[in-house]
Design a protein that fits this description.
heterodimer; A: 557 residues; mainly alpha; 22 helices; globular; disordered N terminus; disordered C terminus; B: 326 residues; ABC transporter involved in vitamin B12 uptake, BtuC; 13 helices
Chain lengths: 557, 326
């Protein structure tokens, strides 16, 4: 299938011609821009959020009060996300569907398709999974759980496959069809709920008037919690095992990551999908069946999302039932776009991005609930109506996504990042010499101290938050260690690092400007859907095939 | 029973008045999308621009008690969001879809974050009548059955949307500037060679789309819903995007698509009010308002596949370059 003409020159660099050190260096170069963009992006995110909190704190407070509020908010954010086993379990639980939906979007991105329809595919997976789960409610758990998963997978795959077929054979723009199918899926799930026992025996509920919802799945279709599984094997290992919400669905997500990795980098199909994403015309010229690949890609994308939907139904979050608005209001499908973008469509990247997103949304809940209470210890004048809202974290998360994208797309930015981190990671003396080296080391130093403070903080929170308290319970019992000194350290060095980085980039831009004189006007490609979409894919898979070394040559030339 | 009620609904102004209202609400951002994408910048950020506009119009109408100021602020903030999009996608050549997604969700976070701050944690409750966008009322004419309520009792923004539609059609296909816009979107190199400032035109077009989306946001907050909630737009911008693609990036086609989507939205709202439908009293599938509500979306797909899809040749990709006419 794959003809030699398709082998891109960049692949030659990855041939194992050199020893382990050389390969490590290549790998470091490859992941450097993405990784460093993410790292710097997280710094930026913290900074943006901190500044927003400090600016928007109630009037009449002094700087130190504002700072204390900020540090309280962020320590609660961290504490809520990873501060204690219960919170970590909750974060992992939130992460599960997000990661699978992220793979759904990512696999489509790889083929140059924009899957906004993960939400609808999740809804279909959940709805059909529920119907199947209720039809075979008497089956034992080891039959029923895979069955519901399979039903969700098939339903999601069909829902995604429709998009693929329409795109491949009729040229219907997938952005339109996915949005339309989202609505159709939401209304179908609402129909299942509205329907009485007459039209869907065993699924719809008997004439309900107040907030109708589907019949809850039977106990055999409930995913066992991890802690309960552990207790089965080692009786009594975990006390209060119902408090840890993470369930065995997490393994499905991890398996999804393995499947995604294997599919994309170890199979002909994955190769073809990537080829189609890079350039459909070239792929067709090379004998790849573009239509078939688009269809298969959307089938796979839908399958990932459908499994996510089935898992959401079988997990503890929705209490195994949905109402007529559940899927219309569920944002997993849209969040998955951010996750895929931030994860740069790689298996590890999407896992990490999903984890980060889940951790942030998990921690943001505690932050909104308790910042005022915590901060009022030191700031008595803080009105009790004040709260740091979860939207702040949403907002700054998007700043992070934008920043990472900027790191991928803006060339000067990218080369600067490659220089900064690539030189550290891969020991590139040539590019190191071109940097203001004092600045580089200052930045690295600041970053290391900040990272140290971060790790210290996490450890402190883990120790401090020992009492097992679920997020929504009364939190007055939690005994926090005062995190302010560590947070102050963190923020100061973040700030310093950012300043140094911006200065470096500024200097570099200035130098380029002086050297080149006035730059010629930029010509921008004519808009054509396929080309734009292929740039989506081109921007993403760069992490894997790795033109990073190309960048460094560009920069030196 | 159900079917006859459905038929009754279709010849009543109860259905067509909200249908045209929703249609106009979608039309403004959709036309913004048309001009932006005609100039070669993919714009899926209409949702975020609308939301920003809606938010600032609601906040400003409460603080200044002046509807005009609020609408202007909405238009401006929508334009500012568009400027961010333009800056990223033109100046930085960032991926336009990615930038659009980021703007959408950033707008959601920004408005959600600022809402409790500006309203002392209370949110915006239903706006009193003097603080909303008025509906047209011509004595005598507005009382004509059907035509009166459907065409002559609409909100003022409805008529603005119609004017924008006509103006957009004229601008894009009957003026020099329109020709330039289309050439920039079709073949920027050639346009640049011909002395057209590609970046300037693209900036202007993207910002225009933001201005229109901001106006639509004000229409939503001050006219249609007369309230502001977090995520007030709830996907309207994406439907506008679909309408634009469905309308093949042409003002008239887009307007038709907006009308269909508006009809679908109105149909679903009205159906939920029918005595024989509603939650928990459906006995056969045909009587479900939810299933009826899927019809416009399915029709869109069918139309896209059957009619529009065929006409949209892959080579032109929905952006035909036809100097001197449509």
């Amino acid at each position: 299938m794959a003809t030699p003409t398709l082998e891109r020159p960049a692949d030659n660099q990855e041939l194992p011609t050199a020893g382990f050190g050389e390969r490590a260096r290549q790998w470091a170069l490859r992941v450097t821009p993405s990784l460093s963009a993410v790292l710097v992006g997280i710094l930026m995110m913290t900074l943006t959020g901190s500044l927003l909190i400090m600016i928007t704190a109630p009037a009449g407070l002094g700087f130190s009060d504002r700072f204390f509020i900020t540090s309280s908010a962020y320590s609660l954010l961290l504490g809520g996300a990873v501060g204690g086993p219960v919170n970590i379990a909750d974060t992992l639980d939130k992460m599960t569907p997000l990661v699978l939906a992220g793979f759904s979007v990512a696999v489509a991105f790889r083929a140059g398709l924009f899957n906004i329809g993960a939400g609808g595919q999740i809804a279909m997976g959940a709805t059909v999974g529920t119907i199947v789960g209720l039809k075979f409610v008497a089956a034992p758990a080891w039959v029923l759980i895979p069955l519901v998963l399979l039903a969700g997978l098939v339903a999601g795959a069909i829902w995604g496959g429709i998009v693929g077929v329409l795109k491949a054979w009729r040229g219907a723009h997938e952005v339109v069809t996915t949005i339309m199918l989202n609505f159709v899926a939401y209304y179908i799930s609402a129909y299942i709920v509205e329907c009485t026992t007459d039209c869907l025996p065993g699924v719809g509920r008997i004439r309900v008037t107040f907030q109708p919802s589907s019949t809850p799945l039977g106990a055999n279709a409930n995913l066992p919690l991890l802690s309960q599984v552990v207790n089965q094997i080692f009786p009594g290992a975990i006390a209060n095992d119902g408090a840890y919400l993470v369930n065995i669905g997490l393994f499905v997500a991890l398996a999804g990551a393995v499947v995604y990795w294997f599919l994309m980098s170890r199979t002909t199909l994955g190769y073809e999908i990537r080829a189609v994403g890079q350039s459909p015309k070239a792929a067709r010229y090379a004998g790849i069946n573009v239509r078939r690949n688009i269809t298969v890609t959307m089938l796979i994308a839908g399958a990932f999302a459908g499994v996510a939907g089935a898992l959401m139904m079988m997990g503890p979050d929705l209490t195994h039932t949905f109402n007529d608005l559940t899927w219309k209001n569920d944002s997993t499908g849209f969040d998955a776009i951010s996750v895929a973008l931030l994860g740069l469509n790689g298996p590890i990247g999407v896992l990490l991005a999903g984890g980060l997103f889940a951790a942030l949304s998990q921690g943001a809940g505690l932050m909104q609930a308790d910042t005022t209470r915590l901060a009022s210890n030191a700031v008595p004048s803080l009105p009790s109506s004040y709260a740091v809202h979860v939207e702040l974290i949403q907002f700054s998360f998007q700043a992070l996504v934008l920043f990472v994208i900027a790191g991928q797309i803006i060339p000067q930015f990218r080369t600067t990042l490659v220089r900064l981190f690539g030189s550290v990671l891969a020991g590139m003396r040539s590019s190191l010499a071109r940097l203001p080296s004092l600045m580089l080391w200052l930045f690295v130093l600041a970053d290391l101290v900040a990272a140290g403070a971060f790790i210290g903080f996490v450890i402190t929170s883990l120790v401090a938050l020992q009492p097992v308290v679920p997020l929504d319970a009364s939190v007055s019992a939690i005994n926090y260690v005062d995190p302010t000194p560590l947070f102050a350290l963190l923020l100061t060095f973040y700030l310093a690092g950012i300043l140094i980085l911006l200065l470096t980039i500024g200097l570099r831009l200035l130098k380029n400007r002086l050297r080149q004189g006035s730059s010629p006007p930029l010509l921008i490609e004519a808009f054509s859907t396929e080309e734009v979409l292929s740039t989506v894919a081109a921007a993403a898979p760069e992490t894997t095939p790795g033109p990073a070394s190309n960048d460094s040559t560009e920069a030196t030339s | 029973m159900f079917l006859s009620q459905l038929f009754q609904l279709f010849i009543s102004s109860d259905l067509w008045h909200p249908a045209l209202q929703f249609g106009a609400l979608l039309l403004l951002p959709a036309l913004g999308g048309v001009i932006s994408e005609r100039s070669g910048v993919v714009n899926i950020a209409m949702e975020g621009m609308m939301l920003t506009g809606a938010f600032f119009s609601a906040i400003l109408v409460l603080s200044t008690q002046n509807v005009i100021v609020a609408v202007l602020a909405a238009i401006l903030t929508g334009g500012l969001m568009a400027l961010v999009h333009a800056f990223f996608s033109i100046q930085f050549k960032a991926n336009q879809i990615v930038s659009g997604v980021a703007i959408n969700i950033a707008a959601l976070g920004l408005t959600g974050f600022l809402l409790p701050l500006f309203t002392n944690g209370n949110g915006v409750s239903t706006l009193p009548r003097p603080l909303t966008l008025p509906a047209l009322d011509i004595p005598g004419l507005s009382d004509i059955p059907f035509i009166g309520p459907v065409f002559l009792q609409q909100n003022v923004v409805f008529y603005i949307a119609i004017v924008v539609l006509l103006a957009m059609q004229y601008l894009l296909f009957h003026t020099n500037i329109g020709l330039r816009i289309r050439s920039v979107g079709e073949h920027p190199q050639a346009a640049d060679t011909a002395g057209i400032n590609v970046r300037l035109i693209r900036y202007c077009c993207v910002v225009t789309s933001g201005l229109l989306s901001g106006l639509a946001g004000a229409f939503l907050a001050l006219g249609v819903d007369q309230i502001f909630n977090p995520n007030l737009t709830n996907g309207a911008g994406f439907i506008a995007l679909a309408a634009m693609i469905f309308g093949k990036w042409r003002p008239w086609g887009t307007a038709l698509a907006c009308l269909i989507f508006g009809l679908g939205e109105a149909l679903q709202n009205r159906l939920n009010l029918l005595p024989t439908t509603g939650i928990g009293i459906i006995d056969t599938p045909l009587h479900s308002p939810s299933l009826v509500a899927t019809v416009p979306y399915i029709l869109t797909i069918v139309a896209l596949v059957g009619l529009v899809g065929r006409a949209t040749a892959p080579a032109a990709d929905g952006i035909p370059y036809e100097p001197g006419g449509e």
